[in-house]
């Protein structure tokens, strides 16, 4: 298995990043929050999880080991595959996910596209004793903060998760007052997703 990837970022798309390792470009599927920390031409180290299927090998990349651990853990719940696990992390993040499971918060889990009431109850039941307590606020990765680019990154992240462009624009406007001087794209993206799930 490939535990992590270190190399130069060759490209960043709406849903993945290509990291050059020893002359080979490895495509990593990442959450919008992780992608927002990557810049083409800069070097990066990303913990990874490889998902092996009969017809494919897919590499998922993460901001840190905690995100990777939660990604692998939530897949042990029945009905949760890698795509849904990634969506859970994109919408909630590791600690918010832990709080939702620990607090029997079905409503929070159903904000994730693809999780309904029964699915949320099943996830809580199956993960409650194993997911652990929140580990504390994550610090913003270097290079995440930039005055204007956060709007594009949040917008692209929402569209990449399946929201219509018009709805994404409204959500970006709704969270703009929270941006401040040093916006954290991952936090703003989650806030935008909350705005859309309430709409």
TrEMBL record:
<dbReference type="InterPro" id="IPR010994">
    <property type="entry name" value="RuvA_2-like"/>
</dbReference>
<dbReference type="InterPro" id="IPR013849">
    <property type="entry name" value="DNA_helicase_Holl-junc_RuvA_I"/>
</dbReference>
<keyword id="KW-0963">Cytoplasm</keyword>
<protein>
    <recommendedName>
        <fullName>Holliday junction branch migration complex subunit RuvA</fullName>
    </recommendedName>
</protein>
<feature type="region of interest" description="Domain III">
    <location>
        <begin position="144"/>
        <end position="199"/>
    </location>
</feature>
<dbReference type="Pfam" id="PF14520">
    <property type="entry name" value="HHH_5"/>
</dbReference>
<dbReference type="GO" id="GO:0006281">
    <property type="term" value="P:DNA repair"/>
</dbReference>
<feature type="domain" description="Helix-hairpin-helix DNA-binding motif class 1">
    <location>
        <begin position="72"/>
        <end position="91"/>
    </location>
</feature>
<feature type="domain" description="Helix-hairpin-helix DNA-binding motif class 1">
    <location>
        <begin position="107"/>
        <end position="126"/>
    </location>
</feature>
<dbReference type="InterPro" id="IPR036267">
    <property type="entry name" value="RuvA_C_sf"/>
</dbReference>
<dbReference type="InterPro" id="IPR003583">
    <property type="entry name" value="Hlx-hairpin-Hlx_DNA-bd_motif"/>
</dbReference>
<keyword id="KW-0347">Helicase</keyword>
<keyword id="KW-0227">DNA damage</keyword>
<dbReference type="GO" id="GO:0006310">
    <property type="term" value="P:DNA recombination"/>
</dbReference>
<comment type="subunit">
    <text>Homotetramer. Forms an RuvA(8)-RuvB(12)-Holliday junction (HJ) complex. HJ DNA is sandwiched between 2 RuvA tetramers; dsDNA enters through RuvA and exits via RuvB. An RuvB hexamer assembles on each DNA strand where it exits the tetramer. Each RuvB hexamer is contacted by two RuvA subunits (via domain III) on 2 adjacent RuvB subunits; this complex drives branch migration. In the full resolvosome a probable DNA-RuvA(4)-RuvB(12)-RuvC(2) complex forms which resolves the HJ.</text>
</comment>
<keyword id="KW-0233">DNA recombination</keyword>
<keyword id="KW-0234">DNA repair</keyword>
<dbReference type="Pfam" id="PF01330">
    <property type="entry name" value="RuvA_N"/>
</dbReference>
<comment type="similarity">
    <text>Belongs to the RuvA family.</text>
</comment>
<dbReference type="GO" id="GO:0005524">
    <property type="term" value="F:ATP binding"/>
</dbReference>
<keyword id="KW-0067">ATP-binding</keyword>
<dbReference type="GO" id="GO:0016787">
    <property type="term" value="F:hydrolase activity"/>
</dbReference>
<comment type="function">
    <text>The RuvA-RuvB-RuvC complex processes Holliday junction (HJ) DNA during genetic recombination and DNA repair, while the RuvA-RuvB complex plays an important role in the rescue of blocked DNA replication forks via replication fork reversal (RFR). RuvA specifically binds to HJ cruciform DNA, conferring on it an open structure. The RuvB hexamer acts as an ATP-dependent pump, pulling dsDNA into and through the RuvAB complex. HJ branch migration allows RuvC to scan DNA until it finds its consensus sequence, where it cleaves and resolves the cruciform DNA.</text>
</comment>
<dbReference type="GO" id="GO:0009378">
    <property type="term" value="F:four-way junction helicase activity"/>
</dbReference>
<dbReference type="GO" id="GO:0000400">
    <property type="term" value="F:four-way junction DNA binding"/>
</dbReference>
<keyword id="KW-0378">Hydrolase</keyword>
<dbReference type="GO" id="GO:0048476">
    <property type="term" value="C:Holliday junction resolvase complex"/>
</dbReference>
<dbReference type="GO" id="GO:0009379">
    <property type="term" value="C:Holliday junction helicase complex"/>
</dbReference>
<dbReference type="Pfam" id="PF07499">
    <property type="entry name" value="RuvA_C"/>
</dbReference>
<dbReference type="GO" id="GO:0005737">
    <property type="term" value="C:cytoplasm"/>
</dbReference>
<keyword id="KW-0547">Nucleotide-binding</keyword>
<dbReference type="InterPro" id="IPR000085">
    <property type="entry name" value="RuvA"/>
</dbReference>
<dbReference type="InterPro" id="IPR012340">
    <property type="entry name" value="NA-bd_OB-fold"/>
</dbReference>
<dbReference type="InterPro" id="IPR011114">
    <property type="entry name" value="RuvA_C"/>
</dbReference>
<keyword id="KW-0238">DNA-binding</keyword>
